[in-house]
Design goal:
- By secondary structure, the protein is an alpha+beta fold.
- The chain has three helices and twelve strands.
- It has a twelve-stranded antiparallel beta barrel with strand order 1-2-3-4-5-6-7-8-9-10-11-12.
Length: 192
């Protein structure tokens, strides 16, 4: 029996591949696989549209993908980077993450029905994130140091601690926000 990815309050998201197609493994704190994230954008779309999409899937205990449970996309936009979190079979986004103007630190806003005034703020280097709603902590994300080689290859490991009591859609939106920040970092790094 697999654990439900959207009910666990502590997750580790580890980038396992970063060349051409990004891949991530999501585990619980005991290192048991509970989900995977695969880049679903083609190389052609990445070159010509400068955007990518990620598919989040539940996995079995060995880490094999079972069922896609959400998609995080980076639709073309002109003024501010915007990311959308979609549930399977539903055209309208469940959540929208938008980059806000901020000096020195990255600041994003998450918009979702029933989830008011959610802000995602990075620290000075955007290494760690805090996700809050009206001053209440919803989640903290720490980017774990995994060595010089992984740093230069762009591989990240995120430790995600979600406040207990949030529902499954809120969990999904928070995972979407974390991966949106990763997508934003990758986009900014590639545009240099």
């Amino acid at each position: 029996m697999t654990q439900n990815l959207f009910t666990l309050d502590e997750l580790v998201i580890t980038q396992t591949k970063s060349f051409l197609n990004d891949q991530f493994m999501i585990t619980d704190i005991d290192n048991t696989p509970v989900g995977t994230i695969l880049q679903s954008t083609s190389l052609k779309d990445m070159v010509f549209k400068s955007s990518r999409s990620l598919e989040v899937a539940l996995t079995d205990a060995e880490g094999n993908p079972l069922q896609t449970v959400m998609t995080i996309s980076d639709p073309p936009n002109f003024l501010r980077d915007t990311y959308e979190v979609h549930l399977p079979g539903i055209e309208a986004p469940m959540a929208v993450i938008t980059k806000r103007f901020s000096m020195l630190k990255t600041k994003l806003e998450l918009t979702m029905k029933g989830f008011p005034d959610v802000e995602i703020r990075g620290d000075f280097w955007d290494w760690n994130l805090s996700i809050t709603s009206r001053g209440r902590r919803l989640a903290n994300v720490t980017n774990e140091w995994t060595g010089v080689g992984n740093y230069f290859m762009g591989k990240n490991t995120y430790c995600l601690a979600i406040t207990p009591g949030l529902n499954e859609q809120q969990h999904a939106a928070i995972i979407g926000a974390v991966m949106s920040m990763d997508m934003l970092r990758t986009k900014e790094k590639n545009s240099d």
